[in-house]
Amino acid sequence: xxxxxxxxxxxxxxxxxxxxxxxxxxxxxxxxxxxxxxxxxxxxxxxxxxxxxxxxxxxxxxxxxxxxxxxxxxxxxxxxxxxxxxxxxxxxxxxxxxxxxxxxxxxxxxxxxxxxxxxxxxxxxxxxxxxxxxxxxxxxxxxxxxxxxxxxxxxxxxxxxxxxxxxxxxxxxxxxxxxxxxxxxxxxxxxxxxxxxxxxxxxxxxxxxxxxxxxxxxxxxxxxxxxxxxxxxxxxxxxxxxxxxxxxxxxxxxxxxxxxxxxxxxxxxxxxxxxxxxxxxxxxxxxxxxxxxxxxxxxxxxxxxxxxxxxxxxxxxxxxxxxxxxxxxxxxxxxxxxxxxxxxxxxxxxxxxxxxxxxxxxxxxxxxxxxxxxxxxxxxxxxxxxxxxxxxxxxxxxxxxxxxxxxxxxxxxxxxxxxxxxxxxxxxxxxxxxxxxxxxxxxxxxxxxx
Length: 450
Hints:
- By secondary structure, this protein is mainly α.
- The chain has a single domain (55-316, 353-449), classed as Na+/H+ antiporter like fold.
- The chain is 70% helix and 2% strand.
- The chain is built from 19 helices and two strands.
- A two-stranded antiparallel sheet has the order 1-2.
- Strand 1 (366-369) and strand 2 (372-375) form a beta hairpin.
- Helix 3 (59-80) packs antiparallel against helix 15 (302-329) and helix 3 crosses helix 18.
- The radius of gyration is 22 Å and the shape is globular.
- The protein starts with a helix and ends with a helix.
């Protein structure tokens, strides 16, 4: 009977994966909201307890499923970005200014804000408060699809190999003209990896005591060394695979011409595996690998095919995770939640992240438009700061951290994270369609008037 229910649920999940994107194109509810509601409905059915799980007993399963989901999302995000980033072209780094500000300013401020609220305001221990800040700070590449760029933009003439047009396309050309979507997409691609050092800091604080005992090691290795290794591995794996796919003289190995789009999944696993074996950050390596592959033969339609495969797998994994989150809500996932956890989640989503994002983007923020630099509109700054969606990455980090050592109030930490994710998914899911639609209409109206 249980296996029959698994097939039933699996069929329903696949049907939702196929139908939801087109059904919700202009709906006021996003797909993640619908999926959580469906999961809650499944949990309330007589057989719903069959799919229930305890996060403390099945921590390893949660960790690995969410890990794969985040990896797939990072690969998709890296392939989707059309805006180049060249190590040798300083101006290309400038066009990523919003991303660097969100990573270097908004993310640390968000971690510090949650830490101070938990430690100083709510009386939590320093280690649990820092852990909450670290796992809740990164925006999510999985659930933020409604505020991200759509995918590789390949025109028909480019796909047909029009040489005259290809000659007109330069590596420093900017294709992502929606700065809000680009900023949120690129931030989500990078900050999942950059949350790891702070997760480690919380673990060290819990297991090794004072920061004076481990601070220098953390700064040199967890914060700097592992990031460098992740970047180098991502570049190396991406360059080698891109060479094989697009440039090698061996026709049998030129996978782009053969249309072997599963290369994207091979690249994802290779980059992650090599980085982890080398003790670097695998999440960062996967995103950098995807970006590096995209840089080679940027306008080749093969990138669209690879992104399509990754996007479908990501959609399926996201459905599964959100369905089980919904089921968990009906099975006591929030039993340990108290007013402190609610305050942390609400404050993060409504105050801490928006304020940190605004501080990061406000001073000296610039964007590229019509080949001229001009200030980014204040409304765009506010929208970018507000739509920092929490999601599957938080579930991975909390599962990982809680498996490393014993924590006081473990169930409360789980409940607080789950509440924050659900609150973010519902609030942002309701607002994203009308806000982004109005922003795009206003942008089109401005372009027509100029």
